[in-house]
Model the fold of this input.
Amino acid sequence: GENVEQHPSTLSVQEGDSAVIKCTYSDSASNYFPWYKQELGKRPQLIIDIRSNVGEKKDQRIAVTLNKTAKHFSLHITETQPEDSAVYFCAAKRYSTLTFGKGTMLLVSP
Amino acid sequence: DSGVTQTPKHLITATGQRVTLRCSPRSGDLSVYWYQQSLDQGLQFLIHYYNGEERAKGNILERFSAQQFPDLHSELNLSSLELGDSALYFCASSLGTGVLPNQPQHFGDGTRLSIL
Done:
């Protein structure tokens, strides 16, 4: 089955810095890659996603890039703010099944 | 608010017991997915139902079962509970079969299950 590796497991940045989280996947049949943000005790919230036929997608301060050949995709957050602090999960979808990475705890210090 | 409703929010029970978790999908969504989230295992896919039929199974134990009813709500039944079953259980829903990229999954607020 699909295997998704996510790095780093924790990331501490200063407010205003950029943050990058990287994921790799194993199944070349995966065709959709969402990112979820989960605040403590809350539900995972979809923040951005990318399809396998697109290399990059941007939404205000967040962007996702996908390299199908290398089977990796990344989340970029610019101008980080304290409210960006949360756990971020990447996922890869094959058919209807999402396989999640283990998550990255992002801490943004004021 | 994602539009996905899960009840109850919290459940405390003892080992060996049986519980039922309930999920109502967003209006218009035909697919329901169940996930287990524990500290050491992250978000693990359990099972997917589409319009009443089972479509995919993940790491779901034989002690666990699910079904989706004609009104599209779903129930996850957990039996012979063990301490290790303590976790957050999330339900998600999506349009259609969930296969297409334009059918993202939206999560409910979860049920926190504590086994004493």
User: Anything to note?
Assistant: The two ends of chain B are 31 Å apart (CA to CA). Chain B has a mean pLDDT of 94. The interface with chain A takes residues 2, 31, 33, 42-45, 48, 50, 55-56, 58, 90, 94, 97-99, 101, 104-110 of chain B (CB under 8 Å). The CA atoms of residues 26 and 73 of chain B lie 10 Å apart.
